[in-house]
Amino acid sequence: MGTAVEAANKEATGSALTQKKPKVIFVLGGPGSGKGTQCANIVEHFGYTHLSAGDLLRAEIKSGSENGTMIQNMIKEGKIVPSEVTIKLLEKAISENENDKFLIDGFPRNEENRAAFESVTGIVPEFVLFFDCPEEEMEKRLLGRNQIDAAKPVGEVFEAVKALFTPVNDKAAT
């Protein structure tokens, strides 16, 4: 583990990020709190790049890499992926992107994650954007996304399902 090549690569990535001086904002909040919606608005209006820690982890798993297999096994076993792994994926995404303004969604999960991010990358976030939303409201939003009453007869349920698959312009024609 810790070969001279790995040390040189870490130093090269760290120095590249230090030279780039990216502006980072952590975006936190529960599922259904509006993080994704507001990140899309920030991207559109302020030109940030949206990086989702979860999406980066899923992409690494899908790549079939050794790292991806390790991540998949940890998740299967119900373990938390070490912050260093997530930080490396974030660091790579930041260094490979031409933009210098980033929204990091879903990370850090705790103070140790934040401190490790700053220590590894040398980047101190501008601020944390926390979407505070009551649990009842988040649940209402999540359940309101294409909610179908499955207690109805099979045919009625499928009519509701079909409506979701019908393009909007086809609906207007009927």
From TrEMBL:
Name of this protein: adenylate kinase
Keywords (A to Z) from UniProt: Kinase, Nucleotide-binding, Transferase
Family: Belongs to the adenylate kinase family.
Enzyme class name: transferase
EC number(s) stated in the UniProt entry for this protein: 2.7.4.3
Species the sequence originates in: Cynara cardunculus var. scolymus
One Pfam family this sequence matches: ADK
Matches recorded under InterPro entries: Adenylat/UMP-CMP_kin (IPR000850), Adenylat_kinase_CS (IPR033690), P-loop_NTPase (IPR027417)
PROSITE patterns: ADENYLATE_KINASE (PS00113)
GO molecular function: AMP kinase activity; ATP binding
